[in-house]
Amino acid sequence: MQLFRLSATMLVAAVCLFMASGVSTETVTTCVDFDDVVHRLECEKGVISVESALYGRANSFICHEGKPTHQTSDTNCHQSGAENFVKSRCNNKTFCEINRVDVSSEDPCYGTYKYLQTNFTCIHTKTTHLFACQESYAHLKCDYGMDIYVLSANYGRNNHTICSANRTPSQIEDVTCSNPTPIVAQRCNGRNSCTIRASNSVFGAPCDGTYKYLDLTYACQYPTHC
Ligand SMILES: *[C@@H]1O[C@H](CO)[C@@H](O)[C@H](O)[C@H]1NC(C)=O
Ligand SMILES: *[C@@H]1O[C@H](CO)[C@@H](O)[C@H](O)[C@H]1NC(C)=O
Ligand SMILES: *[C@@H]1O[C@H](CO)[C@@H](O)[C@H](O)[C@H]1NC(C)=O
Protein backbone atom coordinates (compact mmCIF):
# COMPACT_ATOMS: atom_id res chain seq x y z
CA MET A 1 0.00 0.00 0.00
CA GLN A 2 2.77 2.36 1.03
CA LEU A 3 4.68 1.41 -2.06
CA PHE A 4 1.66 2.04 -4.25
CA ARG A 5 1.13 5.50 -2.80
CA LEU A 6 4.72 6.39 -3.38
CA SER A 7 4.63 5.32 -6.98
CA ALA A 8 1.34 7.15 -7.52
CA THR A 9 2.98 10.34 -6.24
CA MET A 10 5.93 9.79 -8.52
CA LEU A 11 3.63 9.23 -11.44
CA VAL A 12 1.86 12.54 -10.80
CA ALA A 13 5.24 14.26 -10.56
CA ALA A 14 6.35 12.70 -13.82
CA VAL A 15 3.15 13.69 -15.60
CA CYS A 16 3.52 17.26 -14.32
CA LEU A 17 7.09 17.38 -15.51
CA PHE A 18 6.00 16.16 -18.92
CA MET A 19 3.22 18.74 -19.08
CA ALA A 20 5.46 21.53 -17.84
CA SER A 21 7.92 20.74 -20.61
CA GLY A 22 5.13 21.32 -23.10
CA VAL A 23 4.70 24.95 -22.02
CA SER A 24 7.85 26.77 -21.04
CA THR A 25 8.20 30.42 -20.18
CA GLU A 26 10.38 32.48 -22.42
CA THR A 27 11.80 35.91 -21.74
CA VAL A 28 12.72 38.59 -24.24
CA THR A 29 14.55 41.67 -22.99
CA THR A 30 15.29 44.65 -25.20
CA CYS A 31 17.48 47.51 -24.01
CA VAL A 32 15.84 50.70 -25.20
CA ASP A 33 18.75 52.58 -26.71
CA PHE A 34 16.60 54.34 -29.26
CA ASP A 35 12.87 54.74 -29.87
CA ASP A 36 12.52 52.35 -32.78
CA VAL A 37 14.45 49.46 -31.30
CA VAL A 38 12.51 46.27 -32.05
CA HIS A 39 11.12 43.92 -29.40
CA ARG A 40 10.28 40.64 -31.12
CA LEU A 41 8.44 37.68 -29.61
CA GLU A 42 8.19 34.45 -31.48
CA CYS A 43 6.92 30.94 -30.94
CA GLU A 44 8.43 28.18 -33.02
CA LYS A 45 5.41 26.06 -32.23
CA GLY A 46 2.08 27.28 -30.95
CA VAL A 47 0.96 30.81 -30.17
CA ILE A 48 2.11 33.52 -27.79
CA SER A 49 0.44 33.98 -24.42
CA VAL A 50 1.95 36.96 -22.57
CA GLU A 51 2.35 36.44 -18.84
CA SER A 52 3.91 39.76 -17.93
CA ALA A 53 5.56 42.70 -19.60
CA LEU A 54 7.48 45.67 -18.32
CA TYR A 55 8.64 48.91 -19.87
CA GLY A 56 10.88 50.69 -17.44
CA ARG A 57 13.34 49.20 -14.97
CA ALA A 58 12.88 46.73 -12.13
CA ASN A 59 16.45 45.56 -11.80
CA SER A 60 19.74 47.47 -11.87
CA PHE A 61 21.70 44.72 -13.60
CA ILE A 62 19.67 44.22 -16.78
CA CYS A 63 20.80 46.53 -19.59
CA HIS A 64 23.42 48.24 -17.47
CA GLU A 65 26.46 47.81 -19.69
CA GLY A 66 28.22 51.07 -20.34
CA LYS A 67 25.74 53.13 -18.37
CA PRO A 68 26.50 55.28 -15.35
CA THR A 69 24.99 54.08 -12.06
CA HIS A 70 22.54 56.97 -11.78
CA GLN A 71 20.83 55.76 -14.98
CA THR A 72 20.32 52.22 -13.65
CA SER A 73 19.64 52.72 -9.94
CA ASP A 74 15.90 53.45 -10.10
CA THR A 75 14.42 49.94 -10.01
CA ASN A 76 10.83 51.00 -9.47
CA CYS A 77 10.02 52.31 -12.92
CA HIS A 78 6.97 50.87 -14.72
CA GLN A 79 5.05 52.30 -17.62
CA SER A 80 1.44 51.57 -16.79
CA GLY A 81 -0.48 49.95 -19.61
CA ALA A 82 2.62 48.40 -21.16
CA GLU A 83 1.58 44.88 -20.30
CA ASN A 84 -1.91 45.29 -21.70
CA PHE A 85 -0.50 46.74 -24.88
CA VAL A 86 1.87 43.82 -25.40
CA LYS A 87 -0.96 41.38 -24.68
CA SER A 88 -3.28 42.98 -27.18
CA ARG A 89 -0.58 43.09 -29.82
CA CYS A 90 0.91 39.62 -29.31
CA ASN A 91 -1.51 37.17 -27.71
CA ASN A 92 -2.56 34.32 -30.01
CA LYS A 93 0.02 35.25 -32.65
CA THR A 94 2.96 33.13 -33.70
CA PHE A 95 5.19 36.21 -33.65
CA CYS A 96 4.92 39.94 -33.07
CA GLU A 97 7.16 42.97 -33.18
CA ILE A 98 6.87 46.08 -31.06
CA ASN A 99 8.72 49.39 -30.97
CA ARG A 100 9.27 51.38 -27.82
CA VAL A 101 7.15 54.19 -29.27
CA ASP A 102 4.17 51.83 -29.63
CA VAL A 103 4.22 51.10 -25.91
CA SER A 104 4.59 54.56 -24.54
CA SER A 105 4.60 58.17 -25.60
CA GLU A 106 5.46 59.31 -22.09
CA ASP A 107 8.62 58.82 -20.11
CA PRO A 108 7.83 56.91 -16.89
CA CYS A 109 11.16 57.84 -15.29
CA TYR A 110 13.17 60.58 -16.90
CA GLY A 111 16.92 60.02 -16.77
CA THR A 112 16.67 56.26 -16.22
CA TYR A 113 17.91 53.91 -18.92
CA LYS A 114 14.95 51.63 -19.61
CA TYR A 115 14.23 48.26 -21.10
CA LEU A 116 11.28 46.32 -22.41
CA GLN A 117 10.88 42.84 -21.02
CA THR A 118 8.20 40.27 -21.75
CA ASN A 119 7.66 36.85 -20.22
CA PHE A 120 5.48 34.65 -22.36
CA THR A 121 4.62 31.04 -23.01
CA CYS A 122 4.10 29.32 -26.30
CA ILE A 123 0.87 27.43 -26.21
CA HIS A 124 1.49 24.32 -28.22
CA THR A 125 -1.37 23.87 -30.45
CA LYS A 126 -3.29 22.00 -32.90
CA THR A 127 -5.85 24.62 -33.78
CA THR A 128 -9.26 23.73 -35.06
CA HIS A 129 -11.54 26.07 -36.96
CA LEU A 130 -15.19 25.14 -37.10
CA PHE A 131 -18.56 26.58 -38.00
CA ALA A 132 -21.86 25.65 -36.40
CA CYS A 133 -24.98 26.96 -38.14
CA GLN A 134 -27.64 28.51 -35.93
CA GLU A 135 -29.43 25.80 -33.91
CA SER A 136 -26.58 23.32 -34.43
CA TYR A 137 -24.23 22.18 -31.70
CA ALA A 138 -20.51 22.88 -31.85
CA HIS A 139 -18.52 19.93 -30.52
CA LEU A 140 -15.07 20.84 -29.29
CA LYS A 141 -12.71 18.01 -28.51
CA CYS A 142 -9.05 17.54 -27.66
CA ASP A 143 -6.81 14.49 -27.52
CA TYR A 144 -6.41 12.70 -24.23
CA GLY A 145 -4.60 14.80 -21.62
CA MET A 146 -5.06 18.08 -23.47
CA ASP A 147 -7.36 20.99 -22.72
CA ILE A 148 -9.45 23.27 -24.88
CA TYR A 149 -8.29 26.86 -25.21
CA VAL A 150 -10.60 29.10 -27.23
CA LEU A 151 -8.76 31.58 -29.46
CA SER A 152 -11.75 33.29 -31.03
CA ALA A 153 -15.49 32.89 -31.18
CA ASN A 154 -18.02 34.90 -33.13
CA TYR A 155 -21.76 34.32 -33.18
CA GLY A 156 -23.01 36.21 -36.22
CA ARG A 157 -22.28 36.28 -39.93
CA ASN A 158 -19.23 37.51 -41.91
CA ASN A 159 -19.71 35.51 -45.06
CA HIS A 160 -22.54 34.98 -47.55
CA THR A 161 -21.91 31.34 -48.32
CA ILE A 162 -21.41 29.73 -44.93
CA CYS A 163 -24.64 28.27 -43.53
CA SER A 164 -26.66 29.61 -46.43
CA ALA A 165 -28.43 26.62 -48.04
CA ASN A 166 -32.06 27.46 -48.73
CA ARG A 167 -31.99 30.59 -46.63
CA THR A 168 -33.78 33.62 -48.00
CA PRO A 169 -31.49 36.39 -49.30
CA SER A 170 -32.49 38.74 -46.49
CA GLN A 171 -31.33 36.23 -43.91
CA ILE A 172 -27.81 36.01 -45.31
CA GLU A 173 -27.18 39.46 -46.79
CA ASP A 174 -25.84 41.08 -43.62
CA VAL A 175 -22.20 40.01 -43.50
CA THR A 176 -21.22 42.64 -40.96
CA CYS A 177 -22.78 40.79 -38.07
CA SER A 178 -19.71 40.71 -35.87
CA ASN A 179 -20.41 39.60 -32.34
CA PRO A 180 -17.30 38.23 -30.62
CA THR A 181 -18.33 36.30 -27.57
CA PRO A 182 -16.49 35.20 -24.42
CA ILE A 183 -19.14 32.60 -23.64
CA VAL A 184 -17.45 29.69 -25.43
CA ALA A 185 -14.17 30.37 -23.62
CA GLN A 186 -15.99 30.66 -20.29
CA ARG A 187 -17.72 27.35 -20.75
CA CYS A 188 -15.06 25.32 -22.51
CA ASN A 189 -11.55 26.50 -21.60
CA GLY A 190 -9.68 23.94 -19.54
CA ARG A 191 -11.99 21.08 -20.48
CA ASN A 192 -11.11 18.11 -22.65
CA SER A 193 -14.36 18.24 -24.58
CA CYS A 194 -17.28 20.61 -24.67
CA THR A 195 -20.56 21.00 -26.51
CA ILE A 196 -22.26 24.34 -27.00
CA ARG A 197 -25.31 25.26 -28.99
CA ALA A 198 -25.13 28.01 -31.60
CA SER A 199 -28.39 29.68 -30.69
CA ASN A 200 -29.89 32.95 -29.54
CA SER A 201 -30.71 31.36 -26.19
CA VAL A 202 -27.00 31.00 -25.49
CA PHE A 203 -25.53 34.06 -27.20
CA GLY A 204 -28.36 36.56 -27.23
CA ALA A 205 -29.91 37.66 -30.49
CA PRO A 206 -27.57 39.97 -32.41
CA CYS A 207 -28.46 41.10 -35.94
CA ASP A 208 -32.14 40.39 -35.80
CA GLY A 209 -33.39 38.68 -38.96
CA THR A 210 -29.99 37.29 -39.91
CA TYR A 211 -29.44 33.56 -39.90
CA LYS A 212 -26.25 33.27 -37.88
CA TYR A 213 -23.48 30.80 -37.20
CA LEU A 214 -20.82 30.26 -34.62
CA ASP A 215 -17.34 30.78 -36.11
CA LEU A 216 -14.94 29.23 -33.68
CA THR A 217 -11.19 28.66 -33.40
CA TYR A 218 -9.72 26.72 -30.53
CA ALA A 219 -6.44 25.12 -29.60
CA CYS A 220 -5.63 21.99 -27.67
CA GLN A 221 -2.89 22.46 -25.10
CA TYR A 222 -1.35 20.63 -22.18
CA PRO A 223 -2.67 21.95 -18.87
CA THR A 224 -0.53 24.78 -17.59
CA HIS A 225 -1.21 24.29 -13.87
CA CYS A 226 0.32 21.48 -11.88
C1 LIG B 1 10.16 37.53 -16.07
O1 LIG B 1 10.51 36.37 -15.33
C2 LIG B 1 11.69 36.51 -14.56
C3 LIG B 1 12.00 35.16 -13.96
O2 LIG B 1 10.91 34.69 -13.23
C4 LIG B 1 11.50 37.61 -13.51
O3 LIG B 1 12.67 37.77 -12.76
C5 LIG B 1 11.16 38.90 -14.24
O4 LIG B 1 10.88 39.92 -13.28
C6 LIG B 1 9.94 38.71 -15.15
N1 LIG B 1 9.74 39.92 -15.93
C7 LIG B 1 8.58 40.56 -15.98
C8 LIG B 1 8.51 41.69 -16.90
O5 LIG B 1 7.62 40.23 -15.29
C1 LIG C 1 -6.54 35.81 -27.60
O1 LIG C 1 -6.32 35.07 -26.43
C2 LIG C 1 -6.94 35.58 -25.29
C3 LIG C 1 -6.47 34.77 -24.11
O2 LIG C 1 -5.08 34.83 -24.01
C4 LIG C 1 -8.44 35.57 -25.48
O3 LIG C 1 -9.07 36.10 -24.34
C5 LIG C 1 -8.77 36.40 -26.70
O4 LIG C 1 -10.15 36.35 -26.97
C6 LIG C 1 -8.01 35.97 -27.91
N1 LIG C 1 -8.23 36.93 -29.00
C7 LIG C 1 -8.29 36.61 -30.28
C8 LIG C 1 -8.51 37.73 -31.24
O5 LIG C 1 -8.17 35.48 -30.69
C1 LIG D 1 -16.66 32.63 -47.38
O1 LIG D 1 -16.40 31.27 -47.07
C2 LIG D 1 -16.04 30.49 -48.20
C3 LIG D 1 -16.00 29.04 -47.77
O2 LIG D 1 -15.20 28.86 -46.63
C4 LIG D 1 -14.71 31.01 -48.71
O3 LIG D 1 -14.31 30.26 -49.84
C5 LIG D 1 -14.86 32.47 -49.08
O4 LIG D 1 -13.59 32.98 -49.41
C6 LIG D 1 -15.41 33.28 -47.92
N1 LIG D 1 -15.71 34.61 -48.36
C7 LIG D 1 -15.31 35.69 -47.71
C8 LIG D 1 -15.70 37.00 -48.28
O5 LIG D 1 -14.67 35.61 -46.65
TrEMBL record:
InterPro entries assigned to the protein according to its UniProt record, in alphabetical order: Lectin_gal-bd_dom, Lectin_gal-bd_sf
Signal peptide bounds: 1-25
Keywords on record: Lectin, Repeat, Signal
Transcription found in the keyword field: no
SUEL-type lectin domain: residues covered: 41-123, 132-221
Superkingdom assignment: Eukaryota
Entry keyword Repeat: yes
Annotated GO MF terms: carbohydrate binding
Record-given protein name: L-rhamnose-binding lectin SML-like
Organism: Oryzias melastigma
